[in-house]
Amino acid sequence: MIQSVLLVAVTAILTWFIARWVRSTPDRPKRLSSQESEAERAKEIGTQLDGVVPLIALLVFLGFALWGCLARGQSETNSFGPPVAA
């Protein structure tokens, strides 16, 4: 079970790093007009939010995974009775 959780966590972290690397943009050397600079600032804010959203998703996922792991130790997790063979 530890291997499964570790595999999922490593995959999530690796996906997060790859997404950040793909979304990185090079600096522009030319001078921008006021409208272009405002658009660039808006893009930068969007990029910052793009970095936060996967992090929040990772934290929510880890919370649910931890909750699922802790609930397995309880005797009342399956309230519908024993599993039925198909």
Percentage of residues in strands: under 5%
Mean of pLDDT: 80
Radius of gyration: 22 Å
How many DSSP E strands? 0
Q: Could you give the order of the helices and strands?
A: HH
> Structural class, from secondary structure content?
mainly alpha
Shape: elongated
- Identify low-pLDDT runs: none
Share of residues in helices = 55-70%
Distance between the termini: 25 Å
Please report the number of helical segments.
2
Please describe the biggest sheet, giving its number of strands, its sense, and whether it closes into a barrel: none
Mind explaining what this structure looks like?
This protein is mainly alpha-helical. Helices cover 70% and strands 0% of the residues. The protein has helices at 2-23, 34-71. Helix 1 (2-23) packs antiparallel against helix 2.
Summary of the model, kept short:
By secondary structure, this protein is mainly alpha-helical. It has helices at residues 2-23, 34-71.
Produce the secondary structure layout.
Blueprint: H1 2-23, H2 34-71
What key attributes describe this structure?
86 residues, 2 helices, mainly alpha, 70% helix, elongated
